[in-house]
Amino acid sequence: MLALSLPLVFTSCDKDDDDTTVPPKTITETVVEGANFTLLEAAVVKAGYAGLLGTTANLTVFAPNDDAFRQLDITGDGVPDLDTEAKINALTGAGLDLLRAVLNYHVLTARVPASAITTAGISSPTYGPGSPGPVLYAKINGGKAFINGVEVVQADVSASNGIIHVINRVLVPPATTITGTVAANPNFSRLLYAINRVKNNGGADIAAALSGAGPFTVFAPTNAAFTASGFATDASLDAVPVATLQSIILHHAVGARVFSSDLAAGTVNSLLTATDATKTLTINLTGPAVYGAGNGAASATWPKITGVNLMQTNGVVHVIDRVILP
Fold first, then answer.
1. Is the pLDDT of residue 14 over 90?
2. Are 205 and 297 in contact (CB under 8 A)?
3. How far is CA 303 from the centre of its chain?
4. Sign for the pseudo-dihedral over CA of 141, 144, 148, 150
5. Is 39 left (phi over 0), alpha (psi -120 to 50) or beta?
6. Is the pLDDT score of 6 beyond 50?
7. Is the Cβ–Cβ distance between 282 and 270 less than 8 Å?
8. CATH class of 178-320
9. Which of the 8 DSSP states describes residue 23?
């Protein structure tokens, strides 16, 4: 280890010896020597990025700590995917390609100190071999820095070739639009059924809208959320008038990119509000919960946010445990 190679005792009284300073470590050396970066180190080595992060100048790296890796569930099956070095070292093929894409999404090709992040927010494309990668969004909320809604727990760790900001979640790059994610995830099959029923019966093409440029934020109810709200089957959705079902779905979407760190108590306009100004969403930070007037006054019936900051190419998705009722 570099630290062990340094002299521990200086015996000379020469002033030049007293002024000797330890050169700063590279980003790779900082990760290797960090006690809370064992899984990030394994990922960097497995991906073949030790040289990239050790020799490329002027980088900013958002470095997930070990706890962040232990919570990562890319597949959404409830089982952590990269919580051990053995799992990381076993990656091959598409799994290894995904690991590289995830690591790329944590790297900016410029130095961005915490002082450059503003309350209005900044954005920057990430590292990508050959062309810039997907954009990261940084913002100061309550005096803390957040990246895609993920908290920076230690800022401005200096390295010889850049800056490291430690974060407590792994950032997963967007792969598709909001509609694409809803269509691909079996946990959202009832939401997809409701969207398609509206379109197929003369209503709005909500799927096309949520595939647009956006940005949008969608509070997405799972199949279990539909069941908890009295829609246990697709047939139960068939009994809802199309206009009513359209209003319900539109009330789950906001015409802006809102990360969990941006949530503030109060009312928010949904896509439904544009056609009916009396219909707004209410945000309650206890839970946190997001609900409409139809969910009642009791907090027990308010939809709670159970999964946050799922990045999409045109916005962000938060998972909720009940259906929002206008």
1. no
2. no
3. 20
4. negative
5. alpha
6. no
7. no
8. mainly beta
9. P
Judge whether 113 and 162 are in contact, CB under 8 Å.
no
Q: What global pTM score does this model have? A: 0.89
HSE (side-chain half, CA atoms, 13 Å) at 89: 7
Phi, psi of 135 (to 5 degrees): -80, 140
Which residues are registered as beta bridge partners of 136?
124
Decide yes or no: CATH 3.40.390.10 for domain 2-167: no
Query: 3-state DSSP helix/strand/coil percent for the chain, to nearest 5?
Result: 35, 25, 45
Integer Cα distance of 286 and 202 in angstroms: 38
Q: Which residues are 123's β-sheet partners?
A: 137
Partnered with residue 154 across adjacent β-strands are 166
Instruction: Give the C-alpha separation, 299 to 297, whole Å.
Output: 6
Question: In the chain, where are the structural domains located?
Answer: 2-167, 178-320
Strands 216-221 and 253-254: antiparallel
CA distances from 49 to 54, 99, 291 (A): 8, 11, 44
- pLDDT digits over 215-269, tens only? 999 999 999 999 999 999 999 999 999 999 999 999 999 999 999 999 999 999 9
Comparing CA positions, the residue from 222, 324, 190, 307 lying closest to residue 270 is 324
What are the DSSP E strand ranges found in the chain? 59-64, 107-108, 122-125, 135-141, 144-147, 150-159, 162-167, 216-221, 253-254, 266-269, 280-284, 289-291, 305-312, 315-320
pLDDT band (50, 70, 90) for residue 78: confident
pLDDT in the model for residue 10: 32
Which range among 126-130, 137-141, 150-154 shows the weakest confidence by mean pLDDT? Answer: 126-130
SS3 call for 218: strand
- The percent of residues above 70 in pLDDT, for the chain, comes to 94
Let me know: does 282 contact 291? Beta carbons within 8 Å. yes
